[in-house]
Amino acid sequence: MTETDEEALALVRELNDRAMRAWDAADWEAYRGLHTEDLVVVDHRPASLGSIQGRETYLDATRVMREMFVAANTGIVEQHRLFAHGSVAQTSITCVSDTGLEVAVETVTLNTIRDGRMDRIEFFPVEQLEEALARFDDLGRGADERA
């Protein structure tokens, strides 16, 4: 792996980390800046957001979810794919309500990156990891045209 490849992977890691920290802090301006205007979100989980077109629509939906809690902590449990054009990871989100109730959810999160921002996010149940990896591999076949 070349130094340039290492730098590209470091940028993807940093982007993912910045997105998790911004969501945890409910810093919507920072979160907005990490996503393309034409963001596509597809949620494959049983209780899902469905399909969302556009950054502002996604921000509205995710803001409502996040603001139900007084605290949140998001992290990567296991990184399954990491390339310059995106990543797939099992993530964990732990949120705390104003009454102290703690809710933890693990999911498989796929994202693709264009021009240093996320342009696609797909959420899968943990038990659908193989489907998420296959989807990422399919999306990656077009990464050279997007770069």
Across the major sheet, the strand order is 2-1-6-5-4-3
How would the global form be characterised? globular
Quaternary structure of the protein: single chain
> Spans with pLDDT under 50 lasting ≥5 residues?
none
CATH topology, by name, is Nuclear Transport Factor 2, Chain: A
Number of helices: 5
How many domains make up the coordinates? 1
SS-based structural class? alpha+beta
Order of helices and strands: HHEEHEEEEHH
What is the end-to-end distance?
19 Å
Number of strands: 6
Mean pLDDT: 91
Please report the first level of CATH classification, the CATH class: Alpha Beta
Portion in beta strands: 35-45%
Tell me the Rg in angstroms.
15 Å
Helical percentage: 25-40%
The main β sheet shows up as: 6 strands, mixed
Q: What is the architecture at the second tier of CATH?
A: Roll
